[in-house]
Amino acid sequence: MERRLAKNEPKTHMGGDIFEAKGIQLHHIREVSEADLELLQSKFKFHHLDYEDIRSQTPISKMDAYKHYLFFVFHIPAVNEDTGYLYGEELFVFLSQEGLVTITQKPIPALEDIISRIEKSTKFRSLLLGKGTAFCLQRILGEIFRDSLSIVADLTLEVRRLEAAIEVQHDKRLTVDLGHARRNILFLRQVIDPQRAILSSLSNLKRTFVSEEMAVYFDDVHDVLDSIWLSTDNLKLIIDGLFDVNEALLSHRTNEVVTLLTFISAALMVPTLIAGFYGMNVPWLPYATDARFVSLAYLVGFLGMVLVVVAIIRRSGR
Fold this sequence. Notes:
By secondary structure, the protein is of the alpha+beta class. The protein has 10 helices and 7 strands.
């Protein structure tokens, strides 16, 4: 690991912010650049594949265990402000006996809040780092994933809105909103599920810098992920039901339109037949030259078919 700071004060440079308390370092890099990675590689003897994971997109969360350190890729749920779609913001973590390194491609608000508190409060810094790197990681993950509960709350409100709207409206816009909500719910489940496995593995991992006492703390973070998972699972069931209801309402609306078109077609059948005969301009048709008779035949045929269709509809509705 990197040489320790002489003072209990944060240091800021191209490689990010460095905080130290009781011999433990926290190295935080936000919006990591190639220059940052090159500086890290010159100071930390981490595996080169870990740096490649940081350089490239890693869609699935994972934990790589080495002899002297652990490497994590977490995905923190976030919402795209332009599209409203959920995505996973990558958080890369190196955990060792001497220090903790956190790296992000973009600032994660909950993480930045913790870093700000560490920078401003010497007492909080000593409390967080003084209990070891594993405790610091657990505290960071707990704060970050608890902040994600607000996304679950927003999804719950959106599902309730759709549930109320489906009773009065079932148009294309509602179907699009249902698809949007369904996509976000499924994506959140996809992001959270592998991280539950990581926390379970971390609780049972045997390393000198991850004591048995830390299992209780990591189980607490695991409980937060379980709460998110169960909430999204229930929301998935509700949104699937709303999709079925919406499909049924759209099908019923289609049937009503088809019934109306059938009614109009049947009502015009006899007049069309009469127009076909009297439109041929042949002299031998009866009353072919009597416009009043032809018009009356049109009217009688039309009204007769209307009455027949109405009678059929009423009989089938019993």
